[in-house]
Design goal:
With 89 residues, this protein is mostly helical. It has a domain of 28 residues. The longest helix is centred in the middle third of the chain and has 16 residues. It is globular. The protein starts with a helix and ends in a 13-residue tail after the last helix.
Length: 89
């Protein structure tokens, strides 16, 4: 049975190498940094300033008790956070 478009998207999403820039846990344990958790490729494509901005928003929202934190508008509209389309082979 073929996967639906949403199922393929979720499968691809989970295959990505998710991490923080420091490589330390974001929210779990005593060494948690509160950093934004993103795919390695997205982190590599972001400038240090963009990553600092998105991490600051994540920490602020977490402190306010929010479970989810959207990307800051300036970071989300930048090149690093735009969705990349897979090339068909």
């Amino acid at each position: 049975m073929a996967l639906k478009k949403t199922q393929k998207s979720l499968k691809n999403w989970t295959k990505q190498d998710w991490t923080t820039k420091s490589g330390k846990p974001s929210t779990q344990g005593p060494k948690a940094t509160g950093e934004r958790y993103l795919p390695k490729k997205k982190i590599a494509a972001m400038s240090d300033a963009e990553y600092a901005k998105t991490t600051a928003k994540k920490r602020k929202d977490t402190k306010a008790g929010k479970q989810f934190s959207s990307q800051p508008k300036k970071v989300a509209s930048g090149g690093a956070m735009k969705k990349t389309k897979k090339k068909k082979s």
